[in-house]
Amino acid sequence: MASKKEEKSAGQKLEEELLMKPKIVGEADNGLLREAMDYAEEYKQFLHYKTEREILDYTLPLAQKAGYKEFKIGTKYDAGDKVYFNNRGKNLILMTFGKRPVSEGVRISVAHVDSPRLDFKPNPLFESTDMAYFKTHYYGGIKKYQWTVIPLSLHGVVTLADGKTIKVRVGEEPGDPRFCITDLLPHLARDQVSKPGNKIIDAEQLNVLIGSWPFKDDKVSQKVKLNIMEILHEKYGFKEEDFLSAELCAIPAYEPMDIGFDRSMVGAYGQDDKVCAFAQFKAEMDTKKPEFTTMMVFADKEETGSDGPTGMRSVFWKDFLEDVASAWGFPIRHVLRKSMCLSCDVNAAVDPAWPEAFEPQNCSFLGRGPVVSKYTGAGGKYSTNDASAEVMGYLRGILKEADVPWQVGELGKTDVGGGGTIAVDISIHNLDTVDMGVPVLSMHAPLEVTSKADDYLLYKAIYAYYNYKKPKTV
């Protein structure tokens, strides 16, 4: 005879009704990983494109093939029409017009497609002890020691004095050479390893080794440098002086990869913030005829403060939206007031190797879904956008209706450190903004780790946001 099922106590029932109990998403849905696996294959393809220029070169043709047309100012578009705007080859805006007029608000999402890297200095090429190097200036917040003795690839463009721009990408294809930054052997590193972590490698030691074979001519003083320059001239057609008008960088040459026996995670360079960029790109592409107009933005320069004409402190995105609204005579300030923006950026996943850095009740965990950050900033909430209770409630309603599990997240313990996102630069325009992304292990390292389930659920969350039919009431 089967035993009688034990009835829950009054306290247990009340606990279920009133208290939260975080769950690993895999425990709630055993089929989720299969769906996430398929999504991850598309995502890993996206990750092969490692700079903001390469991302735009990859995604714009896909958008055009999907029916997006170049935006024409003054045009009154119909529901379901899709347009794009390309800003300087680094920002891409995609928009799908909704059933309701733009005056009732736009559902905006923004993710940045730049990542920490090693930019070349304006005059980078030099020779020392019969070896040739490129000098670099690190871009964004990095631990400098992490960038030594790893395979590097070279990416970017060189613009000649006649205006011709040459694309450079070496180290990503089979058979390509790779590059590296050397380090001191442990036998001689007693002084080096006794230094603080931020002093182990000096910024001026981040020189990329690019060659060692001399040009055969005894009358030449810098034989290795000349040999390298001859190779570059033969392949690309530029001279040393053309480095003065170049944007070149060294980037980890790792291929995107599955992590773990269960293949449940993705390991790759640049997942901050390409994991969010891909999720919003796919969500926008899959949105057909939304209730409200949707607008996806790829941002640049986030890792260095969002300055310049392609950063979110620029007016490019606001000017675009103003041009859209002007066709109907809608003032941009009223459109922004009715709109909402997801600042799609990652957060730090709790790492059991460093529990002292995290406050587990308010930090995010791998495998528990997308992370919503009400605020970022540093101690005392400085330099942050603090989303209102009403905006948080509205987003909760979206995720609940779509049955997307999610979690909250702060960036570590309150006084341990901190960081910011582009939410600050967006919300100053009287535009309700909240951060949403995924937790990341080893953020800003040459190899970052995310959960495939989290990545896929972020896509579902952004898609639900784009297609939510209820208006924002705040």
Features:
22 strands; 474 residues; Aminopeptidase i, Domain 2; Aminopeptidase; nine-stranded mixed β-sheet; 12 helices; six-stranded antiparallel β-sheet; alpha/beta; 27% helix; 2 domains; globular
Describe what you observe in this structure:
The protein has 2 domains: 290 residues, Aminopeptidase, CATH 3.40.630.10; 136 residues, Aminopeptidase i, Domain 2 (Roll), CATH 2.30.250. With 474 residues, the chain is of the alpha/beta class. Helix content is 27%, strand content 23%. It is built from 12 helices and 22 strands. The longest helix is centred in the first third of the chain and has 16 residues. The chain is globular, with a radius of gyration of 25 Å. The mean pLDDT is 95.
pLDDT below 50 for ≥5 consecutive residues: which ranges? none
Largest sheet: 9 strands, mixed
Could you give the count of β-strands? 22
CATH class of the largest domain: Alpha Beta
CATH architecture classification of the largest domain: 3-Layer(aba) Sandwich
Summarize this, please?
With 474 residues, the chain is α/β, with parallel strands linked by helices.
Structural topology:
Blueprint: H1 10-18, H2 25-28, H3 32-47, H4 52-65, E1 69-70, E2 82-87, E3 91-96, E4 106-112, E5 117-128, E6 131-139, E7 152-159, E8 165-170, H5 190-193, E9 207-211, H6 223-236, E10 246-252, E11 257-259, E12 265-268, H7 271-286, E13 293-299, H8 316-326, H9 332-338, E14 340-343, E15 347-348, E16 371-373, E17 377-378, H10 389-401, E18 407-408, E19 418-419, H11 423-427, E20 432-437, E21 439-440, E22 448-451, H12 452-467
Parallel strand pairs: 1-2, 4-13, 4-14, 14-20, 15-21, 16-18
Antiparallel strand pairs: 2-3, 3-13, 5-6, 5-10, 6-9, 7-8, 7-10, 11-12, 12-22, 16-20, 17-19
Helix pairs in contact: 3-12, 7-12
